[in-house]
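Morning!

This is the sequence you dropped in the shared folder:
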Amino acid sequence: MLKKLLDYLFDRKGKIDNQKTVIVVVDDSEVDRRFMTRILTGKGYTVFAAGSGDEGLRLVQDKKPSMVFLDFSIPGGLSGKEVCIRLKKDENLKHIPITFLTGSIVDGRVIECYDAGAEYYLAKPVDALSVLHHVKILLQDAGMRFFCSEI
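The structure's back. Tokens below.
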């Protein structure tokens, strides 16, 4: 078992199969959804996008993605914060890493995101390289947490 762990730690290349990696993007902005979808599908990830919190919650429950990008402020229905709280309370979904991706920069917003249960926070606007780097690191970290929980 120790050899397996060491092999994983020191040979992380090729551990993520982009074509099998599902990412859900929840954002009320169609422009932002298309931007994220284009970036991620361009690297081979499977992406599902939702324009509302209600739709996003259903997508995550149905698709069981590897990660979720979630806008904090989604008008009407469930807010991004409420979606995050519900996902983190669900025993079958709470392990899915959530990144808040939001343009709302107000005092305390970052703390609110982490208090809701999110693992990460990125402020809009973001560039494509930052998003892809974030996804790579996040998926590696999530894989390591899963691997260690199996030991």
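Headline: The longest helix spans residues 128-150.

More detail when I'm at my desk.
O.
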